[in-house]
Amino acid sequence: MCKEWTPAQHSLFQTANFFFAAAFLVPGSFKQSVLLVRALLSFGYFFLAIWGGIEVCAPDILLWNLIIVILNCTHTALLTWRFLPPTLTLELTELYIKVFKPLRVSKKHFKELVREAKVQTLECGDIYAVEDVSPADERLSILLKGRLRVTCDDTHLHFINQHQFVDSPEWEANHEQSDDVFQVTITAEEDSTYICWPRMKLERVLRHRPMLKTVLDAVIGKDITQKLYALNEHLSGLTDERNRGKRDALWAKTNSRSMSMDAVNTGTSGLVRSQAYKLASFKNVPPFSPNLGSMGKLQSHKPQHWVPVVATQFPKKSPFIQQNSTNSLRIPEIHSTPPPQRSKSLKGSKKDREVKFKAPLK
C-alpha cells in the first residue's frame, strides 16, 4: 500500500503516454489504421527514451525504448511504402484514367497488371505482326501512342489508334495455346509505343484477380466491336463517302449493318458506338424517348437519333399466295368407305357338328 504518492513525472513521460493512448484508440475500420498505430507508437517510445536518458538517467530504460523506437520506425517505413499510390509513367497514367478508371479499377490493381508487362516501341514502317507467319497466341498489347495500319493481302482494313488493343481478336480467338497465326499484317504508320503482356504472365495475374479478368474481357469485347464496325464501314465505302461530303445522302440508303447494335452497353458508363455513328448528324428525326431505360441516359450527354432503315429486300406481293385464293382454299371432299366384310369361307367353318351314337347290341 502506498503511504505517500510520488509527484507527477516529467512532461516527456506524460507526452509519451499520450501517444500510447492515441495509438490504442485508433479504430481498425480503415485500411491505413495499422500505419497510424505504428507511427504513434514510434513517437511515444521516442519521448519515453528521451525521458529515460535525460530525466531518470537509467541506461536500461534508454536502451529498451530506443530498440522499440527502431522497430516501430522500420514497420512505419514499410507500411508507408506499401500504402503510397504506385508511380506510373505519363503514358500509363493516361491509359489508366481513360480506360480502366471509369470501370472502377483501383490504381493498385492496375499497377499489378502493368508490372507483368513491357513497354516497347515501333518506328515508322516497323512491323508488329506478319500475316500467316506471326503466332497469334503469345501476347496481348495496347497502343499507348502512335498509329498502326492493319492490312490483309495488301488491302487496307482499318487503323489502330491510341488506347486500342493491337491484337484483341487474336487473343479472344485463342484462349489456349495453339498453332494459329495472324491473318493480318500490322505495320506502324508512325512512331508508336505499346504495352505488351506475355500470355502466361497475364493469365497468372488474371487468375489471382477475377475482377480484373472481368474488366479486361469487357474492354476487349468493346474493342473487337469497334474494329468490326471500322472494318465494315471501310469495306462498304462508308468512310470514303463520308469524306466526300455525301453523308446525308449515304445514310438515307439501306445499310447492310445492324443499326441497333450501335447501342451495345458493355460497362458502367461506356456505350459502344462506331465512329460513323458519332460523326453523323441527322435532321427531322425524333430523338430517343426518355422511357427507353438505359438508352434514356444518352439524353444527358448529347442528343442522339435513331437512323431510319427501310427494308427493301421483300417483294410487294408474296409469291406464296395465288390470285384465286377462294378456290385454293376449298376443302376436298372425303368419301366414306364401308367397313370391310368378312369372307363367307369363315362362316362355313362355324357350322354345328352332329354327333351320331350307335345303338347298343342286344
Kindly state the percentage of residues in helix. 40-55%
Backbone structural class:
alpha+beta
Give the low-confidence spans. 247-272, 281-307, 325-329, 342-351
Q: What is the number of beta strands?
A: 9
What is the C-alpha radius of gyration, as a whole number of Å?
42 Å
Shape: elongated
Order of helices and strands: HHHHHEEEEEHEEHHHHEEHHH
Cα distance, first to last residue?
154 Å
Strands of the largest sheet, in order across it? 2-6-4-5
Q: On the 0-100 scale, what is the average pLDDT?
A: 74
Q: What characteristics describe this protein?
A:
single chain, transmembrane, 13 helices, alpha+beta
What does this structure look like?
With 362 residues, the protein is of the alpha+beta class. It has helices at residues 11-24, 33-56, 59-83, 90-100, 107-115, 168-173, 199-208, 210-235, 238-243, 247-251, 275-279, 325-328, 344-347; strands spanning 118-122, 127-129, 139-145, 148-152, 155-160, 185-188, 192-198, 264-265, 271-272. A 4-stranded antiparallel beta sheet has the order 2-6-4-5. A hairpin with a 2-residue loop joins strand 4 (148-152) and strand 5. Helix 2 (33-56) runs antiparallel to helix 3 (59-83). It starts with 10 loop residues before the first helix and ends in a 15-residue tail after the last helix.
Concise synopsis of the structure shown:
The protein has helices at residues 11-24, 33-56, 59-83, 90-100, 107-115, 168-173, 199-208, 210-235, 238-243, 247-251, 275-279, 325-328, 344-347; strands at 118-122, 127-129, 139-145, 148-152, 155-160, 185-188, 192-198, 264-265, 271-272. It is of the alpha+beta class. A four-stranded antiparallel beta sheet has the order 2-6-4-5. A three-stranded antiparallel beta sheet has the order 1-7-3. A two-stranded antiparallel sheet has the order 8-9.
